[in-house]
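step 4 of 6: structure.
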Amino acid sequence: MTGISHLISKRAKSRQSSHFTNGPSEQPPKGFKPHEKPLLLSYGTPNDGFFPIDSIDVNLVEYPFEHQQKFNNSMENLSISEKNPNSVHIERHTKNPNLIDLSKGLQYVKVEGHDPLIEFTENFIKRTHPPNYDNWSSILTTGASDGLNKACDAILDPGDVILVEEFTFTPFLRFSDNSGAIPVPIKIDLSNDSNGIDLNYLENLLKNWDTTKLPKPKALYTIATGQNPTGFTQTLEFRKKIYKLATDYDFIIIEDDPYGYLTLPKYQGPPKKNQFELKDQLTLEDYLTKHLTPSYLEIDDVGRVIRVETFSKLFAPGLRLGFIIADKSINLVIKNYAETVNRGSSGLAQTVVNNVIQDKLGGVDGWLQWVLKMRATYSYRKDLLLQTIYESKAYEKGLVDVIDPKAGMFVTLKIEFLKDDSDIILKMKELLWKVISYGVSVVPGHNMTVDKEFSKSRSNFFRLCYAPANNDYEIIESGKRLTDAILEFYENGEKF
Amino acid sequence: MTGISHLISKRAKSRQSSHFTNGPSEQPPKGFKPHEKPLLLSYGTPNDGFFPIDSIDVNLVEYPFEHQQKFNNSMENLSISEKNPNSVHIERHTKNPNLIDLSKGLQYVKVEGHDPLIEFTENFIKRTHPPNYDNWSSILTTGASDGLNKACDAILDPGDVILVEEFTFTPFLRFSDNSGAIPVPIKIDLSNDSNGIDLNYLENLLKNWDTTKLPKPKALYTIATGQNPTGFTQTLEFRKKIYKLATDYDFIIIEDDPYGYLTLPKYQGPPKKNQFELKDQLTLEDYLTKHLTPSYLEIDDVGRVIRVETFSKLFAPGLRLGFIIADKSINLVIKNYAETVNRGSSGLAQTVVNNVIQDKLGGVDGWLQWVLKMRATYSYRKDLLLQTIYESKAYEKGLVDVIDPKAGMFVTLKIEFLKDDSDIILKMKELLWKVISYGVSVVPGHNMTVDKEFSKSRSNFFRLCYAPANNDYEIIESGKRLTDAILEFYENGEKF
């Protein structure tokens, strides 16, 4: 079997793409010659002369939290740009083909997105996760959630089954539900050096699938790097095994990777105090060859993988900008869906991201240098949180354990003394109140299940995220409050 | 009967909104006290210190096409901002509650949008089209298409009927189709002083509706001001009659108004040559009380109207930003749908639009002053195109007629000699090839029908749009090419 077009949903296949401003589709009459300089009275597109914006200057920082550094040096009222002009000027018109000018960026554009940015995302993937086949493309989205909803629409018809990691980014269930599909949870192995998905469980499930009860699965949804919420990362060898199952049982893999570029070295003891010293730790080549975990794209040779990326975690969530790397036949039906449900991402966001990256940072490698600075800061934060936990009494007493993530934004804190409890979820809820009363909010595992009952016995953990904190103090203080709360709960007989 | 909640679709009603980061929903245990300074390890939101952008300067023009004026004055290589600093500085942090700073604008936000901009749209509607009831709200969208798709999803279940003007913005049919609804065309009266919809036809259709064939209509979709493609505008009196039908037959009115603010005075002869002289023609009070046609919102007293607006035509399409004014019960289900299908509009676009309007233009009235400048330029363009047609041989000979629009971007050019032709569409297609060979693209009426066969006898027209032209010359030249092509087609025995 070649290709995956038989796995595209009936609904997605049936959508037509046409527009009333398209020219005639019939053959022209005899003697017809196209005009050399045609003029437009057709499209309802305002000329860019109607746009109130003439140009935009985007003022950048050199590294994350630079503004706080400046602030600490008591230059409170000076913006970075005034001290250190590091700006991108976006003009109404430009002739540079790598840039998007405002006459284009503020205009209507095809839903796939602006060509320079599509091309950037394709070059970016070739550099980081080169697909193992040729017939792929990139299409821009309004972020990972939009990408996931579109992936579901492309593949899933009402009644279709999709396999989902039992603990997951639960908004995904809204997207599979929007397609009418049925999510089936896959067990996760929560031991510390796990790959996430419990491979034996998945193999047995597929081998013994009872098609009289449910149709065989059409897709697997996995957050394979820095899994949300558990933090696990699948090795290349592990991915090859999962991919073989996808081939044998003929299903699509939706690979959601919002922050996998934030690779995190194993905890080696208390991190260095000054995060700004960390920014040049790693060479780009070492990062690409030794740190970054390969994507399913690098195994896939038929277009069975839909990779969903986003600029939310590496640039900014408010852009509402991401992209999908997939087989061209899949991205075609996704384009048709985008013409119905949201008309693509903001051209302004595309323009700012594209021109910041291409005009200032230096394209793919320059962007990756920014990502390296991000990962250095995240790595420092992760180790700071782990240090706080490792040095706590609760850890010393064996009340908690942590999963040290290889990538991403999440640490899993396992509540060891609830491991075999007969009513884990009730206890976890009561413990959560204690944690909140100590002044820290965390996400309990049972909030992120596909099926609470199915996952009950593995729900004795909290997801901790070190991304939102304003500074080191908040991370350390959060870790202390959390472990103190757990200690008190335990010493109070596992009661509030 | 009060309220319209019985008209909300089953699908929309059934959607749940919840997030795994929500706090516990149960009662807290005895003795629980919330912490005074809680810290976050819950949300997966990157701190704004991770955003590479420190500030943005948006450089504005004073009036449409100002950059061309400057260009003509041979200041080619100077951007407007360098000559005339008229900029909005968007900071990482601000304390002004009317502005959106980058720490918020580039961050995740609720799908409804940022509060300052939602509030602006509400104040804008109160000033321009004050709703006639209290329980309404505004929700931001990614533009009018998104707004229309969301309106359909909110109201229409599979098999439901929606009434649609027979010539319309046909992408709407994708949106009604996405809800599984059945569009039924409503005849348009194409005589020159028409209100658009053929009221007698609609009344008879509703009176004699055969529910054994199709369920009674759930909604009417209308572009009531500057109708697309015909250009007609419904008077207030006419709207009251339509609204009465909506009440009597209990259906929703989806009022699509992408460019109704561009009010256009009747053609009074050749327009003044310099468009820049036109910008202060009208006072704001005269505009609001004498020029702007009231919306259905101003009649509606129960929340039966969903008004879909956009910033595409008045600010820029590439923002992908619009809003819906509707009953709160409708905007609530639209919010839940937005959590599934696109996660709302770009925060960057919201930030730029909000701060340009609130920080520089001066809020609602300042924004309306910009709209007045837009309408002056559009009015000049419309009259320039009409002048070219009126002065053409084709018009002199009675081969064509035009509908002079009261608002919007479209002029309808009726091909008079094809009025009673037995095969209008074939002739119009052949004529279109002639027009294209003369170097101008236009949209034939038959491309914008709900049902080609139903509207065949009224399809003898082209839609002309004066928005995309780069300058006056292109408008005049387009009009000449078009009327010359029609004349030649006619003189050639209605053949290419």
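step 5 of 6: annotate
 - The first helix of chain B runs from residue 10 to 14.
 - Chain B touches chain A through 127 residues (CB under 8 Å).
step 6 of 6: archive
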